[in-house]
Amino acid sequence: MSAPTDYHPSLDDPNAWVPYRYNPSLAAAVIFLIAFTIATGWHAVTLFRRRTWYYTPFLIAGIFEIVGYCGRIASTKDLWALSPYIIQSILLLVAPALFAASIYIVLGRIIRFTGGERYSLVPVKWLTRAFVAGDVVAFLAQMTGGGIQAGGTISSLNLGEKIIIVGLFLQVIFFGIFITVATVWHLRFNRQTAVQLNAKRDVLWRKYMWSLYGGSALIMIRSIFRIIEYLMGNDGFLLRHEYLLYIFDALLMFLVMVLFLWLHPSKLTMFETSDVQPGHDMEEGGQVAARTAGHRPISQSTSSERKTLLGRFMPSKR
């Protein structure tokens, strides 16, 4: 008698590849679907209201999380269906790469906000581009690995797994270099006394710097967890216990979204429009003096008017 065509190996069979080594929890998937939907919706409203288009990767990452947990919900209905498994596997895997890209952008904003460009190891105009480019390479490697796994054969699943591991290692390496660059800039800028910032600006950049460290730590912990998970293989301890995925991936990425809702980078831009850039104090003083005297600001005056105005407020050489 031939074996039935719908035969599936035991979830505990160490010699067989199976999508899940457990029955996925519907309740856990629904809870995080709701959590990410609320957080992503809030980010979308903030992005469109404040026009922070540069933060779009962060929003896309949130959408990936939402669709990924929809895939896990579908897997609770059919454990062996490959489509929902691959969808959740790929999207939950690559979403943090987009969170990381957004954090790279935040560092560039902080450096410009403080006027501390000369203290950066990497020129600010290349800072975001360089790390985002590295992040894209890691992202594409993970996507490629996930795409190969979509073939559904044992050989394609194993090959895709190896490529995903390479992508995860690249992500951790680039992220580690980024944290080093951020820390060196922070220490250099913190030690110098040449640039004087007003109290509000000084407090704000420090808040954002520590939020950057917090978000980076959460993403790094999650990425290391994923590397260990894939290195242990389909029958490894981490893949056998679903709660570890929710602790070291879902929860950590949700905290990243909440953290950057609390300290959204748009506040840096909003503050810049209502405050004076570092190093522009002389021009602001001249503009105030000009308005007091009933004249146009210095930046809008003719060269002769500037000489007259500045002569009133600057001591003459004896």
UniProtKB/TrEMBL annotation:
UniProt cross-references to Pfam families, sorted A to Z: RTA1
Compartment(s) where it occurs, according to its Swiss-Prot or TrEMBL record: Membrane
Stated name of the protein: Uncharacterized protein
GO CC field: membrane
Record field: transmembrane: 26-45, 52-74, 86-106, 126-143, 163-187, 208-228, 243-263
Keyword Membrane: yes
Region (Disordered) residue spans: 291-318
Membrane topology of this protein: Multi-pass membrane protein
Keywords recorded for this protein, A-Z: Membrane, Transmembrane, Transmembrane helix
Coiled-coil ranges from the UniProt annotation: none
Species annotation: Recurvomyces mirabilis
